[in-house]
Amino acid sequence: MLQKLEKLLPDVLQQSDCFKQALTHRSASGKHNERMEFLGDSVLGFVITDALYKQMPRATEGYLSRLRASLVNEGTLAEIAIEISLGDYLHLGAGELKSGGFRRKSILSDTLEAVIASVYLELGMDAARQFTLMLFETRLQDLPSEDELKDPKSRLQEFLQSRTYPIPKYELLSTAGDAHRQLFTAECYIKGLNIRTQGISTSRRKAEQKAALYAFEQVMQSIK
Prior knowledge:
Order of helices and strands: HHHHHHHHHHHHEEEH
Distance between the termini: 40 Å
CATH topology of the largest domain: Ribonuclease iii, N-terminal Endonuclease Domain, Chain A
Strand content: 5-15%
Strand order of the largest sheet: 1-2-3
Number of strands: 3
CATH class of the largest domain: Mainly Alpha
CATH architecture of the largest domain: Orthogonal Bundle
Helix content: 55-70%
Largest sheet: 3 strands, antiparallel
Number of helices: 13
Shape: globular
Structural class: mainly alpha
């Protein structure tokens, strides 16, 4: 289990102006962390890519790319930020404080990248690598399989093709709601198995993915 942020970093870093800037949102000061987010994103991406490359010597490029995407994304970074109580250290403007910015995923993930950048800038690449790998240690030890990382449409089509069933067909059934709040309903139809499923979401792509997920579940039931 990860400790709080202050326990993970040396005092010399925490007392630096660079670290304080890393924790400062643009709503709080003109000297904020946006440029540091940009740098931290690159450092993070390299460290995780390097770790996966060495840890998974037989993995394909596609699998490695999907693994990296599953680790280096807003959701995962926000989860880690919550685990180290990063929200307790943020410097936010009054408006962001009032609206709960210390819990917002985008702010938490961006700030974590900025903190990684501050480690790199103040202590060097080796320290940034060590800090990043410590943050991701449990996730790197429990990586998802290649099949788990595939989207539902890909998983469904590959499964059907491997058993010589017809590939699924997708159709947009309806679109409802205002332009900025539309809901799409899509259908997935597998002719050979006579399976029809529907998915509803905020985009056609997401609706099709949901329909494919439901279809995959029915396919697995039907072939048992």
